[in-house]
Amino acid sequence: KQWYQRRVAITAGENGYLVLCALFDCVDDTILVKKTILSEIIENLDYIVMSAHGRKIVNYLLAPRTKTCHPDIIEKLSCGDNNAMSKKETSVRSQEILTYASTGIIENFSQNVQSLLMENATCLLISNALLNVNCDITPLLHALVDMINADVDSVNEQTVHIVLRNTLGSTSLQKQFSELLIERIPMETFKLWLGSNKGAFTLWRILEHKSADNSSVLVDGLKQFKLEDFPESAGKTKLADFLAS
């Protein structure tokens, strides 16, 4: 009972987060896990993601035993593999837990996208969520675009650049996100992006895979500008080469 009452605080503990990750790995009754643990984690995500250990739990929910997890964590948790009590396939258990957590994570991140983009550690949670949840990510993509529209210089911030780079570089997301950016961001904002290296690189990434059905809108708009009037940068060179091809 004492542990149950402190389960949210445990997420921030140096060893407590490992206990929770181990539970996700071995408890076959994922409905029970959802009711007793996941519901509390989702309800308190604002608090949990501000803790380094809490972020490890969220990353483990999204992509267990991947590069988002430190090798030491994986090594410690692997001690429980093939235990006699767990009968369900690991992949099945992980997907069930991810399904229970995904919608709540996307809803929370959509509402708190600006604060999550204030630090490198939390911005990576956005990328991890977009790449791994198994629910509709449209609300979070829209929240990102809305934030960029509200602050056109945000494209030059390192955290925003990381999320844009990771999302536009994903084969599963690049088409949807590129089309949304072209559809909802004014051409005048894209013109401002030409003035910075990160902004020009983002424009190139939107276009490089030619996956967006509306990419011609951006290409035609950019060709109206004289690129030589903008500062030289590696991003502008990449974009110029693309537009000239």
List the helices and strands and how they pair.
Blueprint lengths: L1 H4 L1 H4 L5 H11 L3 H14 L1 H4 L3 H11 L8 H7 L12 H22 L1 H4 L3 H13 L5 H13 L7 H11 L5 H11 L2 H7 L3 H12 L6 H8 L11 H11 L1
Search tags:
68% helix, 0% strand, elongated
Please characterize this protein's 3D structure.
The protein is an all-alpha fold and 245 residues long. The chain is built from 17 helices and no strands. The radius of gyration is 21 Å and the shape is elongated. The mean pLDDT is 91.
Rg of Cα set = 21 Å
How many helices? The count is 17
Fraction in beta strands: under 5%
Shape, per Cα inertia axes: elongated
Name the helicity range: 55-70%
* Alpha-beta classification: mainly alpha
Mean pLDDT metric = 91
Brief description of this entry?
This protein has 245 residues and is mainly alpha-helical. It has helices at residues 2-5, 7-10, 16-26, 30-43, 45-48, 52-62, 71-77, 90-111, 113-116, 120-132, 138-150, 158-168, 174-184, 187-193, 197-208, 215-222, 234-244.
